[in-house]
Description:
This is Tryptophan synthase beta chain-like PALP domain-containing protein. Helices cover 44% and strands 7% of the residues.
Amino acid sequence: KLPVLYGIQADGAAPLVDNKIIKNPNTIASAIRIGNPASADLAKDSINESSGEFIKVSDDNILDAQKIIARKEGIFCEPASAASVAGLIKLISKGYDFSNKNIVCILTGNGLKDPENAQQYLQSNIIKTSSDPDEIREAILKY
């Protein structure tokens, strides 16, 4: 059976979602910052054949997904890879039911490819404590 495919694009670079060429694509996810995909017809055919769809996610959604992946799975992926998880989160929040389904989000890019965005995003989330074990434990439990 053919799996259902979902194509995830960033808000500022979503030519397949918007069905038009984006002259100046803009997203933090540099690997998907494409305004006129070379294989657009093939991608559209694949999505249609599988009864899937294209959706857009914001840069904030992508950064949130990147953080979740790092925290929950210990994987530091680059923003374009995190877009797949951001898309899954968005679909679930829209009421899509993936119960009893096998879900695959492909993360091909290492976070070291684009560390600046993650570093900026994480700077505001640094927790500072003394070296006291009780204070450290308390800070971890709050987090």
